[in-house]
Write a structure and sequence with these properties.
Length: 227
């Protein structure tokens, strides 16, 4: 066998083995939680020797981090390059950025499982929330802030406090995940309709044509019981 072909074959086998470990690790983390998951069990589920895991991942923490990355890569992979090269308007770009997580996270049972795991385990293992913040929250918020600034510069969006708090724009998506985790099939959301409402709500509030509520009118507009 030619050296180049043999090298490519080895690399392909290495990639397949890594994917095999990540899939088994996800199932173990999702089933047992972070603390109770043992690398022996991951190896058994992946049908490999435990030592093989250490050829790819130094420890359980790095394995979990890789599982998180693996689950979110379709959503946030190369997001900076995507934002920089997007040819359409800022409204179209923001719509695209906010739509992607619905198919890749909200509708993805495995991705929801990671979020459930983080919610359950982060109090006892704060390093998990740091991984989540570094790998998911920070890149996502940076991308949204860039889109907002781009839209403001182009005259598409009004400048509001949303630039300082881009979390506001993804809050409905987070609610959809939590709703689905809690209620499941008993009280399901029509996620396509929900997503459309989310996007309309966000874009209608940001467009330059919308007028911000004048100071002092909030109290006057509130129901009597809320004043």
């Amino acid at each position: 066998m030619a050296p180049a072909k043999e090298y490519l074959q080895r690399q392909g086998e290495k990639t397949r083995r890594r994917e095999q470990i990540l899939a088994a690790a996800f199932d173990e983390f999702a089933t047992n939680g972070y603390a109770a998951t043992r690398l022996d069990d991951v190896a058994r589920r992946a049908r490999i020797a435990k030592g093989t895991i250490f050829l790819h991942f130094k420890n359980k923490r790095l394995l979990f981090r890789s599982v998180v990355r693996h689950m979110i890569h379709p959503v946030l992979g190369n997001v900076d390059a995507f934002v920089a090269s997007f040819p359409g308007s800022s409204q179209e770009l923001l719509r695209e950025l906010l739509s992607r997580p619905y198919s890749e996270v909200v509708k993805n049972e495995k991705a929801r499982g990671i979020i459930r795991l983080l919610i359950a385990e982060t109090r006892n293992f704060p390093q998990l929330s740091e991984i989540y913040h570094r790998e998911i929250i920070q890149p996502g918020m940076t991308a949204i802030r860039l889109v907002l600034e781009r839209g403001i510069a182009a005259g598409e969006f009004r400048r509001t406090k949303t630039v300082d708090h881009p979390q506001i724009l993804v809050a409905p998506m987070v609610l959809a995940v939590v709703w689905t985790l809690i209620h499941g099939e008993r009280h399901p959301l029509d996620l396509d309709s929900y997503m459309a409402a989310h996007l309309d709500f966000v874009l209608d509030g940001l467009r330059q044509t919308g007028e911000p509520l004048e100071a002092g009118k909030t109290e006057a507009m509130a129901p009597r019981g809320m004043q």
